[in-house]
Amino acid sequence: GSAPWIYLLARKGIAVVAELGIDLPRVRRAEMTKGWLFYDHSLLVNDMLITVDLLARDHDHIQLETFLHERVLKQRPLQVEIMVPEFGGGERKLKVRLIPDAFVELRVLDPQEPYRINIAIEADRATEDQVKWRKKVRTYLAALQGSFQQHFDARSLTVAVVTTGGEHRVH
Q1: DSSP H helical segments within the chain, as ranges?
Q2: Rounded CA gap, 63 and 108, in Å?
């Protein structure tokens, strides 16, 4: 099939949204010239967030408390210190930014005990190698030592990886 159409708001549309009191992340000119993989990834993230929103709409006992797209998360990245291997042996500390593709907080209205579920969503289009994924996993593990809880005001985290590429995605 053909590629999906992608629509962006023009200045008038942005002004209407601003009048409604909704903050939109700024679109940088560099983002306008990105290739298909960038837009394909953004569409996957959007689809995941729409799915979470529909889940909350379809189930009265689930409320969507927080809904953050990567475009918003990039404006306030979580700084994390991780240990990385050095050539020749040993490890060194490295400061890195953790920017999930999306973050949602759900409130589950369980009659016995209501609770919250915090989910960092990662969209995998099978374009990153194992080295990058391992670094991302180390970054999440380091963030769970305290900085994540402060940054997102949350006690726990589920990291959901949604993938559309590779033969092994069904395992």
Answers
A1: 11-19, 29-32, 36-58, 70-73, 130-143, 147-152
A2: 6
**Based on the number of CB atoms within 10 Å of its own CB, is 79 exposed (0-12), middle (13-18) or buried (19 or more)?**
exposed
> What pairing do the DSSP bridges indicate for beta strands 91-98 and 78-85?
antiparallel
104 and 143 Cβ atoms separated by less than 8 Å: no
Neighbours of 92 (CB within 10 A): 9
Tallying the residues shown for the chain, one arrives at 171
Q: Of 123, 116, 108, give the one whose Cα is nearest residue 48.
A: 123
- Token pair, residue 58, equals 């379809």
Predicted structure pTM score? 0.79
Strand 115-124 to 78-85 pairing: unpaired
Residues 6+ apart with CB under 8 A from 69: 25, 45, 46, 49, 102
Q: Give the residue-averaged pLDDT of 60-80.
A: 91
pLDDT of 75 strictly over 90: no
* pLDDT tens readout for residues 6-55: 777 888 988 898 899 887 766 666 555 566 667 788 888 999 999 999 99
Cβ-contact 79, 95 below 8 angstroms: yes
